[in-house]
Design a protein that fits this description.
With 428 residues, this protein is of the alpha+beta class. The protein has helices at 13-22, 54-63, 74-78, 81-87, 97-104, 106-115, 129-135, 162-174, 242-262, 295-299, 307-315, 393-404, 420-427, and strands at 4-10, 28-35, 45-46, 68-71, 92-93, 123-126, 143-147, 156-159, 185-189, 194-203, 207-209, 214-215, 218-220, 224-227, 232-235, 268-278, 281-288, 329-337, 361-365, 368-370, 376-378, 382-390, 412-413. The structure holds adenosine monophosphate and glycine (GLY). The site of glycine has 8 residues, from loops.
């Protein structure tokens, strides 16, 4: 078979991890990435097309004989890029818009879980501010308030007091901080437990699991401060024992995939379940329609099978096949611009990227670009994901933080406690 031309959509650490894995596939010829970043550029031709410019991406794919398009982020999936490409006869990996609504609308996702009895927090959905506000009069706190639509991980408010809840509601529904994503809100029960992310390749009917991972969403150590896109991750997550995964498979993942098929929304792509392991068992915090970021940066380096092959199979509507994984642990520490997730400066020169840190270290680029004199400079909130691989957890933590110490830019910030929960779990 002739080698395939690939178009990868996105430009974060997840996509850098994807492209790194793709280059190992014997099936792959040229790789293009829209828009990419300074790290992705080493493996792919980066295109000046925005990840949400579906028409521009379609035009490029048609003109450039692209054999497979792989979509990293959620926005183009929710906007229907897969349906548009398929209507033109192009192969594309990811769920169609109707299936992607499992992430694109929390109101849809919660109603779906309710209908198919998938364990999750109890909830109510509101379309107007007055009714939503009135519901707070008769509720116990904490509650969780969520904007219905996409909000880059920032539309969720855990409210410990009535005042916090009223402020959150006003931000979403009156001040419209997230635009139309705040047309509806979901108000739900606060769950306690440990969080873990489960990922599976789905072909519409069958699932093949990837290693589970744990993200670190809050900006500060000990999970304090506002939520971010994710400040670090590790995989596999020791809390996800084989027994627990079995339960998640039976009670959550399979009913979701079969329920979506029954609703006429067959799910083909990576299904990501954000779970809370409560004293009542695993419950869904949210579903996402793609790989997580930074989770992808710790999961993908553990995949020994050909990732392009499985994505191509799913795009071609063939059955998923089992995957092989390495026995290593992976841990990623995100280096962010000081100030993130609030405002921050960009354009800072990054030092240390030229160093060879060893084959067990992967420095994935997120918000980077080429600056003057071909220097690589910061260009986003999350700048780099420094991932280490090792045969035991102590070693992986030590190597990841060792590598972080070799890289520097002005006002760089990172969490110092990535992986601590796994360590305490493993020592029990
Ligand atoms: P989401 O974007 O829905 O994953 O929410 C972001 C974060 O908010 C989650 O990772 C949790 O830490 C927290 N969260 C969301 N929903 C709940 C809930 N019902 N109970 C407790 N924490 C939640
Ligand atoms: N790391 C969280 C996410 O990708 O949604």
């Amino acid at each position: 078979m002739a080698k395939m031309n690939i178009l990868l959509i996105g430009g974060g650490g997840r996509e850098h991890a994807l492209v790194t894995q793709m280059t190992q596939s014997p099936l792959v010829g040229r790789i293009y990435c829209a828009p990419g970043n300074a790290g992705i550029r080493e493996h792919a031709t980066c295109l000046d097309i925005a990840q949400n410019d579906v028409a521009g991406l379609l035009d490029f794919a048609q003109r450039s004989e692209i054999d497979l398009t792989v979509v990293g982020p959620e926005q183009p999936l929710v906007a229907g890029i897969v349906d548009r490409f398929q209507a033109e006869g192009l192969n594309i990996f990811g769920p169609g818009a109707q299936a992607a609504e499992i992430e694109g609308s929390k109101a849809f996702s919660k109603a779906f879980m309710h209908k198919y009895k998938i364990p999750t927090a109890t909830h109510e959905t509101f379309e107007d501010h007055v009714a939503a506000s009135a519901s707070l009069d008769k509720t116990d706190f904490p509650v969780v308030i969520k904007a219905d639509g996409l909000a880059a991980g920032k539309g969720v408010f855990v409210c410990h007091t009535e005042e916090q809840a009223r402020t959150a509601l006003a931000q979403v529904m009156q001040k419209r901080k997230f635009g139309d994503s705040g047309n509806k809100v979901v108000i739900e029960e606060f769950m306690t437990g440990e969080e873990v992310s489960v990922f599976a390749f789905c072909d519409g009917e069958n699932l093949v699991y990837l290693p589970s991972a744990q993200d670190h969403k809050a900006i500060f150590d000990n999970d304090e401060g506002p939520n971010t896109g994710g400040m670090g991750a590790y995989a596999p997550a020791p809390i996800m024992t084989e027994e627990l995964l079995q339960q998640v498979d039976t009670e959550i993942m399979r009913p979701t995939v079969s329920g979506l098929a029954r609703e006429g929304r067959p799910y083909r792509g990576v299904l990501y379940a954000g779970l809370m392991i409560t004293s009542d068992g695993p419950k869904v915090v949210e579903f996402n329609c793609r790989l997580g970021d930074p989770e992808a940066q710790v999961i993908l380096p553990l995949v020994k099978s050909d990732l392009v092959e499985i994505m191509f199979r799913i795009a071609k509507r063939k059955r998923v096949r089992d995957l092989e994984f390495s026995d290593d642990w992976a841990m990623c520490v995100v280096l962010a611009s000081g100030g993130y997730p609030g405002s921050y400066e960009t354009g800072k020169q990054i030092l240390g990227l030229e160093k060879n840190l060893g084959s067990d270290i992967r420095v994935y680029h997120a918000g980077t670009k080429s600056g003057p004199a071909n220097r690589i400079v910061t260009d986003g909130g999350r700048v780099l994901g420094v991932t280490a691989l090792a045969g035991n957890f102590d070693a992986v933590r030590e190597r990841a933080y060792w590598a972080v110490g070799k890289i520097a830019f002005d006002n760089a910030y990172y969490r110092k406690d990535i992986g601590m929960k796994a360590l305490s779990y493993l020592r029990k």
